[in-house]
Specification:
rod-shaped, mainly alpha
């Protein structure tokens, strides 16, 4: 599964993704 692979890749990357998602949410894109 994609999510599993990403989690195993790097914890820092997930944090970065969460930050981007939060920013996109603030902008009102999602």
């Amino acid at each position: 599964e994609k999510g599993k692979g990403e989690e195993g890749l790097r914890p820092g990357k997930i944090q970065l993704k969460t930050k981007i998602m939060a920013r996109v949410r603030v902008e009102g894109k999602y």
